[in-house]
Amino acid sequence: MTSSTPQSALSGHPYPGSDPYAAHATGATPHPEMAQNNNYRQPTPLDELNATAQRIAANVERVLVGKPEVVRIALVTLLAEGHLLVEDVPGVGKTSLAKALARSIDCTVSRIQFTPDLLPSDVTGVSIFNRQTNDFEFRPGPVFANIVVGDEINRASPKTQSALLECMEEQQVTVDLNTYQLESPFMVIATQNPIEMEGTYALPEAQRDRFTARVSIGYPDPHAELAMVDEHSGHNPLADLQPVSHADQVRKLIETVRSVLLSPEIRRYAVELVSTTRRLPEIRIGASPRSTLHLVRAARAQAALSGRDFVVPDDIHVVAIPVLAHRLVLTPEAQAGRRSPSELIRTLLRQVPVPQAGAPNSGPVPAPAPDPNAHQHANWQAGPGTAGLHGNR
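Above: the chain sequence. Below: its structure as tokens.
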């Protein structure tokens, strides 16, 4: 999608007009020409979800060229009410992905540049004494936004990183015994560089487990890189990016995703996949019960983006590696053997029996989706303690 594409011509946008998303607002009137068409039908919530998601994806791909699978995982995470960890080498567009997604939605956005001297109060906010009122008043920090972009999160100390634990899990902030609720939708998009370890602090397991998905962007292919040079060398595409949705609409889409059918067979399948990770000899710490919730929420979002109001096993397969791989802690023997969490998850998807009597028309599931991060460099796997970094993020 080039930056010159008019908004009304975006894929999945059936309504002409200057406003790219006004026609999808609640109570909007369809275009007269379409209303006179006997074949016209009122869009369903799934139709609106797919149209909005396609507009957001097309908008983001104006900045991040040639990575549709990464953009889709970001959208799945947004609709699953989760948080996204973007982990990759410098210069591949981690921050651009986060900022493009944030700017595609007309909502409150804040950015935190994590540095070694950043304090927890710089994230959550602080109480300041007001001489006029002779009392303390709370000044909200940058975490009070719909989308929070945390750049280079592993450069802050663990004390500062822990300031995000409560807001990511409970969508609230507690300061000086007072609890403040965060507005929905709330999403943290954090980036980090897994290669450069000097001056960084590894994310604690409690923090990693709160990220619904981890994704790696990787280098573009030559064709996509040439298109990027042609389109982006003269100007910054982020400067021209306009919102194609808004916070109220995203909240409505999240409600649509919550209503997607999750059959008992699919639930048991998800539980079996996650619990099996705790019994593998190559894994020291398996996936948590929280990861089971994240897995089924992401599968619901994946099903909705596919135009279905029910989840099939293939939806589990598509999101399993991004949702589960970053939570697994391998044994030293597995790391020495250069095993990766993504490889182990892929093996589980082949071994755990797939339910055959799930949602309508589910049927057998094809082979697991290819890992979009298989392009990672071999040296990601070479160093001690880096096993699994090349897996799907």
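The chain has 16 helices and 13 strands.
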